[in-house]
Amino acid sequence: xxxxxxxxxxxxxCSRRIERLGLPREAxxxxxxxxxxxxxxxxxxxxxxxALGAIDFGRAYYLSIEVxxxxxxxxxxxxxxxxxxxxxxxxxxxxxxxxxxxxxVAPIAVWGCECxxxxxxxxxxxxxxxxxxxxxxxxxxxxxxxxxxxxxIIPWPGxxxxxxxxxxxxxxxxx
Length: 175
Fold this sequence. Notes:
Elements: H1 2-20, H2 27-30, H3 35-79, H4 87-97, E1 108-115, E2 122-123, E3 138-151, E4 162-173
Antiparallel strand pairs: 1-2, 1-3, 3-4
Helix pairs in contact: 3-4
């Protein structure tokens, strides 16, 4: 009870002091009514730029995952069911997996053989690779590289207006 009376006394004495200065009680509120609107006008452009930057970054990240997954899909097609030499089929599988990438992807598919330790890769197995000593055997592989370009929603000043995206997948196939 004493605290409530004391607080009310402080508020009343404060407003009496303002009135003693010659300002009416409403004048202290009128001088600050537009301040929050001005602050909001300064902050909104920064919030909009922050939101657009987050959207741009998120979309570029999503499309980079799509491009990498397209490479994986093409390589999986080549490794499955003896499709090792079907390069156009691998490229088609990569394109079909990236159907929502604007402008599509540019897949490049290769196959070849290499030593089991991953050294001495030879494309198209035109001649068997020379493997270093030890119990090493030949392994076939398929590899698909994909690339695409993401155009930014807003070209940022001093920065690039597009981002190159790429993906690579290599799958080894047992003979």
